[in-house]
Amino acid sequence: MSSKSRQKQPTFKAVAANDDLKYKRKYKELKKKIREMEEENEKLSLKLTRAKKNIQRLKIERSFLFDRLEQSQPTNESESDTTSSPPRAIDSEEDLSSSAEELLEDHHRTGKRKKQNRDPNAPKRPRNAFLMYCKSQRDQAREENQNKGFQDVTRILSQKWKDLPNEEKQKYYDMYNKEKERYEIEMSSYVGTSSQFGYIQPEESTRNEVITRFDNNVSNHHHHNDISGERSSLTTAETSRVATTSTLESPYNNNHSYEQYIDENERGIGSEYEEEEFVETKDDVKLDIGGDDYESDTDSEMVDELAADINDNNKRRHSKAEREEAMECEDEVRMEEDDENEKKDNEGEAADSKEENLVNETGTSENDEI
DNA sequence: GAGCCTTTGAAGGAA
DNA sequence: TTCCTTCAAAGGCTC
């Protein structure tokens, strides 16, 4: 009996050690997963920040366009009443309103939008599952239906698509999801780049057409007249700064007055709501680059300051990574020490039980002898 | 060279 | 929420 228990002892220990190893492995896996989730979370936060900034910009743009439309409305009515008035030189307000209204009316009436010159640098929209299917099957379908035209082949493919079992379709939906991910990633880092094409936001072509028409009118007008009031001040007050910022970050490269409007709104001249939103946006930027304030007056200084901050931030990140690594090493060392201690304890226990067994055995033999 | 034809499906805006 | 529109792809055809 005692010899059996002696044989079982190391097996039990081996199992316990095995369990420990398992837990250790599991612990490491979980730690890795947490790290991955944190990284993903960081990415998503960045994406959210960008989206917020974009929304803020669009809000300002919208209020700008509505302001222009509202301001120009009464002028138009009075103009239409005075039929005998002599023809005037270009009136930016009138031209703007007629262009914008015409465009908006056109859009509402037809419900269709004219095709836009899309920025060739803009990411392509993802192809849906059916288009993926067409791409892979079209050649074969054309070979099978050589006498049929292109549209007919598409029609055949659509019929085939409908008849396709869901498991087969799933393959193409997966492909679509991958394309979609690619598109989202590209869009998150995409800022309108080409001044030739302007900044054309997907699904925002009408808005941009209005803006383009407006700014064409404004720029034309500036060559002919000196406008008094708001727009004049808009175009002259901070031209140099706007020119710099527009080349640095503006998607609307030709729009000084428009840029100026955005710029002023973003610095808090707009409504309280906008101001509040702007503070949030600026805070987001601070978060992105390390949480410091920027006090530079000029753009070049600000760029230097930003670069310095990014370097600092990289250093911080680097040291953070090092700290994490060191902590991990410490954990591992601690775990190894624990293991060793446990091993020693187990060995001690084994020795004790061995001694106990020996005592018991000797005890029984003595008794036998007696 | 631009736009149309055909199809499905995703996405976004308007009502 | 529903409806409508646009845009992705393919290549030939028309203006």
UniProtKB/TrEMBL annotation:
Q: Name one GO molecular function term.
A: DNA binding
Q: What is its main location?
A: nucleus
Domain HMG box intervals: 123-191
Q: What is this protein called?
A: High mobility group protein 20A-like
Composition bias type Acidic residues, residue spans: 290-307, 327-340
Domain of life, per lineage: Eukaryota
Q: Which GO terms describe its biological process?
A: regulation of transcription by RNA polymerase II
Compositional bias annotation for Polar residues: 71-86, 230-258, 359-370
A Pfam family matched by this chain, by name?
HMG_box
Q: Where is this region: Disordered?
A: 64-128, 219-370
Q: Where in the cell is it found?
A: Nucleus
Q: Which GO terms describe its cellular component?
A: nucleus
Organism lineage: Eukaryota, Fungi, Fungi incertae sedis, Mucoromycota, Glomeromycotina
Key words, A-Z: Coiled coil, DNA-binding, Nucleus
DNA-binding feature ranges: 123-191
Q: Where is the composition biased (Basic and acidic residues)?
A: 279-289, 341-357
Coiled-coil segments: 20-61
